[in-house]
Known about the structure:
Layout: H1 6-16, H2 19-26, H3 30-44, E1 49-52, E2 55-58, H4 60-75, H5 99-105, E3 127-135, E4 138-139, H6 142-148, E5 156-163, H7 171-179, E6 183-184, E7 188-191, H8 196-205
Parallel strand pairs: 3-5, 5-6, 5-7
Antiparallel strand pairs: 1-2, 3-4
Helix pairs in contact: 1-2, 1-3, 1-4, 2-3
Amino acid sequence: MMYNPQLDTFICVVEAGSFSKAADKLYISPPAVIKQINSLENNLGVQLFARTHRGLVVTAAGESLYQDAKYMVNYSKYEITPVEPYTSDDLNWTNSSSRVSREHDDESLRDIPLTEITPADWDSYDTVLIGYPIWWGIAAWPVDNFVKGNDFTGKTVIPFCTSSSSGLGDSGNLLEEMAGTGDWQEGHRFSSGASDADAADWVASLNLNE
Length: 210
C-alpha cells in the first residue's frame, strides 16, 4: 500500500490528544508536528482537526482517516526490495542498454532476487494490497518472486498500479496466475499525477475496516 510517514504523526496526535503531547512521544518539536499535520491536511484537501479553545477536536474526516491510517501504517510498510536495487539509470527505459531494457528483451534476466520474500506476521494478513509500477504493460517483474514465493490461501488480494499512460491491463490477472492461490479482486490504476487524497479515497472505498 501507499504509505505516508505523516500518517504516523497524525495517528500519534489523535491518540495523544494534542500537538505537544504527540511531539513528546515522537521526540520532535510541536512546530514540526503542526507542520506535518498542516501538510497532510493540504494534501488531502480536508480538515482533520478543529482547533478550539478547549484543545484539538478530531473532525469527521479525521475520524475516518484515523481508521484507514491505522490499517495503512500496520500493513503498508513492507517493500519489495531487490537484492540489487535499481538505480535511475537502470530504470531508463529509453536507453536500450539499460538494465530494465535488457531485462525486458531477455525474460531469463527477470528472475530478480529479493532481500525478503515473506513479510513478518504473514499468516495474520487476511487482506493484501500489492502495489507496483507498470513496465511494458505488465507488473514490474521484481514483484513476480514475491507473488510466487508466498501462499495467499485464505487471503483477499487487491492489486494496484501506477502508470503514466498504460492501464492496469492484464497485470493483476498474470500475478494471480503466478500465485495460484488467494481471492484476487479487480485492481486499480493510479495515474502519475495521483494525489494523496486520491489514494485515501480509494482505500476508504475498499471498506477494509468492516
